[in-house]
Write a structure and sequence with these properties.
mainly alpha, elongated
Length: about 90
């Protein structure tokens, strides 16, 4: 065979290897991290969808300030009476 043919084949092979390496490098450095950021963002949005951040809905308070929220006592008394049941037990000796 002629030596020029071997050189052309070698150049083509090196060019293909270089292109494959460039595409692989681009994929690893740019595409995969952007895909991971989007995936993590989607998971965070799914997780926090029903659970807003604790400080989002509360007004800003000074340190040491206390607030007490009272429940309606009539409703809590009715719920407790129907939700629980007394169980008699004997002590084993």
């Amino acid at each position: 065979m002629h030596p020029i043919i071997h050189d052309a084949t070698l150049v083509k092979a090196l060019l293909v290897i270089l292109i494959v390496y460039a595409v692989y490098s681009l994929f690893i450095r740019i595409i995969i991290p952007s895909m991971m950021r989007k995936y993590v963002s989607d998971i965070q949005n799914q997780f926090s969808g029903g659970n807003p951040q604790p400080n989002q809905n509360k007004p800003n308070k000074k340190e040491g300030e206390v607030s007490i929220t009272y429940l309606n006592k009539d409703k809590t008394a009715d719920n407790n009476a129907h939700d629980s049941e007394y169980v008699d037990y004997e002590e084993i000796k």
